Structures are given as structure tokens and as C-alpha cells.
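>> received
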Amino acid sequence: MNSSIPVVSGSILTSRRSRNSRLSRSCALNFIQSTMGNQNVKQANLKSRLLYSACILSFTALATPLRAYAQDGAATTTEESRTLETVTVTAQFREQELQEVPNSVVAFTAQDIEDAGIRSTEDFIALTPNLTFDDSFTYLNSFVVVRGVTQINNADSPVAIIVDGVPQNSQKQFKMPLFDVQQIEVLKGPQGSLYGRNAIGGAINIVTKQPTNEFEGFVAGGLSNGSGYRMDAGISGPVVKDQLLFRVSGSYYETDGLIKNTYLGRTVDDVDHDYSIRGKLAYTPNEVFSLDLRASYNDAQAGAAYDAVVNSTLNPDFRSGNNSNDVFEPRSSLAGVTKADITDLSGKATLDMGFATATYILGYTDLNEDYRSDLDFSNPTQPTFGPFGELGQGQNLSLQLMSQELRFVSPDTRAFRWIAGAYYLQTDRSLLTRGFLNLNGSLDQFENGVIIIDRGEDNDNTAWALFGQAEFDLSERATLQVGARYDEDQRNQNMPGAAGSGRSTTFDAFQPKVTLSYDITPDVLGYATYSTGFRSGGFNAPGVVLDSFGDEMLTNYELGLKSTFANGDGTFNIAAFASESDGFQFFFVDASTVSQIISNLDKVEMRGFDADVQYRLSDQITVTGGVGYTDSEIKSIGNAQLESYLTASGVDISKVIGSHSPKTTEWSFNLGAQYIKQVRSNLSAVFRVDYEYQGEKFWQIDNVDVRDPVNLVSLRASLEGEGWSASIWGKNLLDEEYYADFNPSEYAGAPFDLGSQARPATYGVDLKYKF
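>> returned
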């Protein structure tokens, strides 16, 4: 059994600062209770209200006697004493203890990941305030929203995703199986000075486990409802002791799915297979040089586009008069399929030059995703497209990326510390989009059927950047951090076979960042930050109504407080932010060409805060919580052509100004508790409960369609022995029915609203053996 204390949203750590905390234990508990009390949330149904109240009462009942127990000084126990874990994060290119980073950061250690049963991107996002994840359409597709900044389909992500030091430059790389992972770090707020383009909302740093100098390995497997099956395995050890080490790990997953298409009589969120393999070599010939090589391959085939018609306008007899809270099963006549594969190759060389450590990183990605699905999302008995009949659609996406980065990082021990570097990215992307008449129910009609939409495009871009950061210790307590980055991104597009169709443009941005941090006490760090972020513009498909879109620039002001209390048994962190986005990017579908359109809103303001607390009540019990609030407001559209198009599509422009940005959730909240009981020597029982609240979600820029709040409860119970564990678990145990994604007809390019159903209750068992 690992002797560290696992937590949900960032581990409790023992800081280099002394533990003479000014904050009391009751302050932390009062924070949890007050944030719950101030939600004033509208519960979706009686079942949710009852469980929500039960969660509050159970945690309060649990905390009260333990608080008195600790205050009475009777904290002795027959349990083995457990030590607190020091969490070191590396997302700012140097090792720093979590509580000493002047930024809003949430970290998950390997123990956290195992105890919480984190297996996918969605799992850790659910435990992070002011960060949401929507899973819809194709298997690799996802929409992440951080502090009101929104993901766009087939476009740049609002957060920088880094895996083992290599930027993942495609939205399709974010949704990934998480196996053999050492740590996950989530930085909120613009990180443009270090990560540049696409770090407009933050950065997520994923570190997989490194090769070891001793032979070790693991085998893990699990079963879940929907005939789900999962298996992970890995082995690590030396090729040449102390010099050349290796690690190989892999993951496999399949499921029949849980969301049923009632017309076809089958589930449509199935995963035929999703397997990944990853290999790593670490070469350290001496004390000053190291070389890390990494290769991975992922192949998947799964369902796609199992959206349901929610409100049909051309066929008033089929689901008319409904809204985004009326959850229906899909009834399309074509079951969608996604086929995807991703190859990643990277190398990292590090050289200690004395005055600085030089690091060179080379990364290459080859990503392919093809999908086929229904286009009218109905069937012959319930048509939605009037005289057009049954329709199908599909896309072939091919993407190659090559990135290089060279940076120099000064030693950590000096009063003046600096980082300097350069970055280069080459991207080649081709996309073929087709629509066809569904005459025989076959997905092969994409290649050989009656094609009614046929649009191809080749896009490539060349981006480069120079960046630097300096830190000055102004005194023993005060530190000034100044950083900046210049990015330039050249975008090119042409239509295959169309002479003279090429076009090109360049976007650039200067992204400064200034942070002043101050140790208010040995246990309390305060900071103030001015930061900026940049998301590049680009081209929409050739021949559409809005054929290009501009870049987005975000300016952020932030005040934060990070504290440790109760002699190191707890942490409480809070950050308040005020941001302004110029050229806010969002997307919709053009009805006339059935093409995705990315466009810009002139100005959007976002204000809010996020906070997290972790508290070890005893050697056995740890409580964690987090709350996030984002109040976004569209101030101006600033594009006459966009306004004209939206008006013609049925959007009331007067409702856009003053509305929240699309896909934004105003309030988010999570609360968790973990209880560890030593059954006997080398055998422990671990019980864990997590509650997540997602407030109202505003689907589009006019805020006409709003999802009611969602309450999600997860439970996990494990037995952990010497080198083995067995767990039973459940997620969404309230079996909440809601849409993970929703597209109103005015923005969907179709005469109906579309909703993509979220997964219902899931449960299963896991087994793991380490050797």
C-alpha cells in the first residue's frame, strides 16, 4: 500500500516553508460548507435534491466527530502512520513544489490517478473546477471549456496539451486513454509566455511513467456494464544498468455501449476496439547528458454521431416543441462509425551546461480519423429533411505535425533565474467532406454512392516562436516573474485539383506575462498576474459564406492565494480572474453548404474565481473539494456579415449581446472523501465517494438553449494488498439523463435541434497486479 495520502484535485504537500499555519481547521470546513450553501442551485429533480442533501449530511456528520477527535488530542491510532506527499510540478519547465507555484494549478499524482480510477481525460476534468469536457460526434472529438474559453471542432484547442514534454497540437489528441501515467498538471489562465499559440485558456501537462533501473511491471484488467472490457499492462527495467533503461506499456478497451438506437434496435456508442502501445528508452551515459526516446501507436474503431433529433421543424409530428432538457434516444437509420489511428514519435535530449540546462525536443505525429454517419438523424418512418429523404455524411481527416523546441533553463538555486527558447511547428492537414443520398443503408455510399456534397481542402501552416522568462527574488519574500513570447503562424489553403484556389495569410502575436508573488507568512503565498494568450486565425472551407476567421487574443488579470494549514494537513487555494477576449472564436454549421464555420465575436468578458481545498482529517480520512465560477458576457459582435448571416438563420441578434459565451457553465463544484482502513497487515480497504455539480450550461451565443444543472455521483471501493488491488466502482450513479452536447437548429445547419446523449450510469470491477 502506498504510504502517501491521495487526494482528488491536487495532492496535499509538505512545503519547504514551515508549517506554522495561520489558518484553522474550521476555516477549511467552513469554506466547504459555505460554497455548498451559496450555490443556490436549481436541482433537476427530486432524486438529485435528495442525494445532494444526503452527500452534505454525510460529509458533515463524518467531519464533525473527527474534528472534535483531533482537537481533543486523541489522535492516536493503531493504523500505520501515513506521511504527506510532496507534489512537484514541471509545467513551467522547472521543478517546483505545487504550493509554491504562483498560478492556479491542480495536480494529480500517480496515487491520485489510481485511487480515483482516472482512465480518461474526462475523469480528471470532472475533478477540476472551471473546466468542463463535452464528448460528442466522432470518437476522438471533444470540447473542452476553461474559464469560458471554448473548444472549436476541427480547430485549435484553447489549452496547450503537453505529453512528456511534447505539445499535442491537434484537438483530436486531447481525448486519450490514460494508462501508466505518473502525473497530470492543469494550469488555468493564459500560459502564452511559455506555451504560445493555443494556451489561451491554460495548459495541461501529462507525464507518463519513466523507465526504471530495476525490473518492474504490472497487469490490470476490468469489466463494466455494456459488456465493457479493459486491460492494461507494462514492464520496465534496465538494458544496461544505470545507463540505458526501457519501459513498454499498453492498453486495450472495448464495449458494446450503453446508448440504444431504438430504430435500429442496437447500441450505437460501442467501441469495437481501442488499443494503444507506448515504448520509452532513457539513455544516461553520464551526469550531464540524457536522451529520452518515445514512440506510441493508438488504433480505434467506435461509434460516431449518435445524436438525437430533439425539436423538428419540417416534420412537426416528430419531436416538436422540445428543448435541450428533453432527452431522447437516437433513431437514425445509419449507425455511425469512426476509424482512427495516431502515431507519435518523439525524442528529448538534455545537456547540463553549468550555467543552464539545454533541452531539445523533436516530435512527430501522424493522425488519421475517418467517420461515416447519418446526416438527417432520422429514418424512413420519421423523416426530418422533407423532400430530400434519407441522407448520410462523412469526413476523412489526415494530419501530420512536426515540432521542434530548444530551450535553456538556468539553475533553480540562484536569485535570478531565467528561461529562453525557440519553437517551430509544421502542420499538414487534409480534409474531405461528403454528403450522400442514403439509398441502401450502407456507409460505403461515401465512396460509391450518389454524392450531393463533395468538398476537399488542404491546409498547412508553419509556425515559429521565440520565448523567454526571468525571475527576480526582490527579497526573501517577494519574487517578480516577467515573461514574453512572440508567435508567428502562416496559414495556407488550397482545393485539390482546383488551379488558382490557393490562399495564404499570416497571424502573429506578442504575449507578455508579469507575476508578482509574496510570502505573506511561511504558509501563505499571494500573487498578482497579468497574462495574455493567443489563438491563431485561419480559413474555413472554400466557397462557404464566411471563408476565413481572425485570431483571438485574451488579456487576463488574476489575484491568487495559496495556503497550507493545520500543520501541513491541509491546503486552501483560491484565484480570482478578470479576462477580456478580442476576437472570441466560436463555430456553427452553415445550412446552405452543410459546412462548419468558425467566426469571431468582437469582444467577450469573463470574470470569476476558482478554489480548491484538501484536508487530511485523520490518518484514515481525507476530504477534498473545489468550486469554480465563470461569468462570461458577450459585449459586441462587431461583424456585419456574421450578424446578417445569423439573422437570416433565425437568430435574434438582440439576445446575443449580454449573453454568456457558448458552452459555458457558470458554476462548477466537486466534493470528495476517501476513507482508508487497515484490515490487517499488508491489507487495506479504501472507500471513496465523489460528487460533481455542473451548473446551467449555455449552448450557444444567444443563450436560448440552456441545460439544467447536472449532479453526478461516483463511488469506488478497493482492497489493496502487497502488490495487488481489487476495486468495484460506479459513475453517474444517479443515472442522470442529459446531453453532453447540444446544437440548436439555427447553428446546426439543419431543420432540427440535435442532442448527443451523455453516458448513463456505469459500473464495473477492476483488478491490478504489480511485480
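>> The radius of gyration is 26 Å.
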